[in-house]
Amino acid sequence: MVLSDFAMIAADTARSKAYIQAMIQGEKLPAMCIIYSENCKRMEERAEIYEEEHYSKKYFDVDCPIIFSLRKANIPYILVENKNINSEQMAGIIGKCREKYLIYSGYGGEILKKPLFQLDKKFIHIHAGILPEYRGSTTFYFSYLQEKQVGATAIFLNEKIDCGEIITQNTYELPQEMVDTDYIYEPYIRSQVLMDVLNKYVKEGELVASSQENERAEDYFIIHPVLKHVALLDMGFHEISGE
Questions:
Q1: Does an H or E element contain 154, and which?
Q2: Distances (CA, A) of 20 to 23, 79, 161, 182, 203
Q3: What confidence tens digit (pLDDT) does each residue in 190-210 have?
Q4: Residue 187's domain spans which residues?
Q5: Strands 135-136 and 101-105, how do they pair?
Q6: For residue 27, is it within any domain?
Q7: Position 50 in a domain
Q8: What is the SS3 assignment for 135?
Q9: Considering the entire predicted model, what is its pTM?
Q10: Is residue 241, in this structure, part of any structural domain at all?
Q11: What are the tens digits of pLDDT across the range 39-98?
């Protein structure tokens, strides 16, 4: 099923791979994708030489190039040789999109600036934490340390960090087997919440969101390496460096 109201903006990241593969597996495809990178030629070369593995991976195939997945699923895409989401070039391309909803999967730390919010688009972002309780960075670990659970929230982005209207959210149990939390499991749970959004749209014909309640809102910053190590040890994992 092609969702004609949805497009995707995807950086060359593990998270984008998780999103695209989840949409393909769930048969809820965006009408088109905007792929942006500082080296699009390298992305194309990787897609050309990639040999698909014919066995199931529990979460997603982090080795599968984005362009390979898009070509296999016949999802139209354009490549933009630019790593700055807030550039005039990107704004011009986004502004020409016919789709109302833009699934945003950018590079870590990017914040959309005011000109993009003037394009009459709805940017859907999946935050790796339950909002409004866990705003900011590395909330996957902070929520585990405080509540022994992890989650993700789909929001419509606005100019304030992690303060947009909530579309849906969900919590997840930790995996029992060893897995890279940053590079595999966190992108995976985000992809599952994205699928909740798309399934909700198909069922209801629209996306209704609600404003965040602020009584328990907290802002978190990049977790200290020692605290991250404590969280991983408590999860039963050793330190695995991810994206």
A1: strand 150-156
A2: 5, 15, 24, 18, 20
A3: 999 999 999 999 999 999 999
A4: 2-235
A5: unpaired
A6: yes
A7: yes
A8: strand
A9: 0.93
A10: no
A11: 999 999 999 999 887 767 889 999 999 999 999 999 999 999 999 999 999 999 999 999
